[in-house]
Design goal:
Belongs to the ComF/GntX family. The protein has about 220 residues and is α/β, with parallel strands linked by helices. It has 9 helices and 6 strands. Strands 1-6-5-2 form a 4-stranded parallel beta sheet, sandwiched between helices. The relative contact order is 0.17. The structure holds zinc ion (ZN).
């Protein structure tokens, strides 16, 4: 049966449309075009410098560089808007291959979608990514730790008011203390959404946060 479906609907590279003979999302030639970060040797990476101005962060990891015309944008676009949920699994496999965690966190969580958005999309594009990493790294995950309670976007700024405003977007139904979280998102642009989640997590005592994103803008 699989043989027949493979013949009728062969797996194709989402970039160049060439047929590929495994479960990958892109062919080897296109894979070589991806701009991976390669930050392993750096003590301070650009993501840490960016986020450190918004909230206290321990370790920061990013798999790819986001480029407006690049392949990374295309991959994440398909993951989020073209019902290609399985791309999350592939990105997690690349992450395990490319990124070595400096310190092992206690719990993996991702930025939640508002329930209305989740219903519309049918899935949270970060869930399969997080679950695959959890399995590979042997670290538990929790998809329900953070809940998004409002629909609007977080606002920029470091002052107390905007921080308060941003944390009101998320809620923690059952807080944990003494936990090192790895907070996961797809693209880090301004970092404001992450900051909103981070300050919410840091309200409970002795928590700390590291960050992992699929791509840094
Ligand atoms: Zn290709």
């Amino acid at each position: 049966m699989n043989f027949v479906t493979d013949l009728l609907f062969p797996n194709r590279c989402l970039n160049c449309n060439h047929i590929i003979y495994n479960q990958d999302i892109i062919c080897e030639q296109c894979y070589d075009q991806i701009n991976f970060t390669h930050w392993e040797a750096l003590k301070q990476n650009p993501l840490k410098l960016k986020l450190n101005t918004l909230f206290p962060v321990r370790e920061t990891y990013a798999l790819m560089h986001f480029e407006k015309q690049g392949l990374c944008r295309k991959i994440i676009h398909h993951l989020k808007y073209k019902h290609r949920e399985n791309i999350g699994r592939q990105l997690a496999k690349w992450t395990v291959k490319k990124i070595k965690l400096h310190i092992k966190p206690d719990l993996l969580i991702n930025i939640p979608l508002h329930p209305r958005k989740m219903k519309k999309r049918g899935y949270n594009q970060l869930h399969l990514y997080t679950e695959t990493l959890s399995h590979a790294w042997g670290i538990p995950f929790d998809h329900h730790y953070l809940k998004r309670i409002t629909h609007h976007k977080p606002q920029a700024g470091k002052n107390r008011l905007s921080r308060q405003h941003n944390t009101e977007i998320f809620t923690v139904p059952l807080a944990r203390c003494n936990t090192h979280f790895l907070l996961i998102d797809d693209i880090c642009t301004t970092g404001n959404t992450m900051a909103g989640c981070a300050w919410k997590i840091l309200e409970a005592s002795n928590n700390s946060i590291s960050i992992l994103v699929m791509a840094i803008d």
